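Reopening this ticket.

The earlier resolution said the output was attached, but the attachment link was broken on my side. Pasting everything inline this time so it's all in one place.
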Amino acid sequence: MTTMLNVKDLRAYYGQVQALHGLSFSLNEGSLTTLLGANGAGKTTTLRAICNMVRSTGAIEFEGKPIGTRSTENVVRLGIAHVPQGRGTFTNMTVEENLQLGAISRADKKAIGADIERMYEHFPVLKQRYTQQAGTLSGGEQQMLAVARALMLRPRLMLLDEPSFGLAPLIVRDLFR
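Inline output:
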């Protein structure tokens, strides 16, 4: 298997507080990996460090190339999608506007339109609410929208932070399907 993400001696900081202490791991293409740990163990910080959203040291390589000095925007342009904890939808925008925003780095309008329709096939409730403001959706619907928006990037790697937190079991099943 090909290594997609390689993290070596990752240390992350919030101001003067060190939150990660030398984390190392790698992810293979096509794999599904879960970070497990207690609250405060550094799971969210790890994902934020990969996306360069927090100050960090160590080496982060994506598809063999260092990404530790890239801006968050340029990390996204490489095909790394991050669905943050707590849904992270743009609450004042409609469902469809959120989906379009997920494809902001893409140029092919026809393919973007087709992908929006594909997201509606994956998450039919979003199609029913395409003109509705995201902030008025239920928690589960907002989580579906956050995942669908990330998929609009056509990511090579998806980082999901607590994707099932606070959701009913049936919604979790639908989301992971």
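Reporter confirms the inline version is readable. The helical segments are 43-50, 72-77, 95-102, 109-122, 124-128, 139-151, 169-176. Strands lie at 3-14, 17-28, 55-62, 65-66, 80-83, 157-160.
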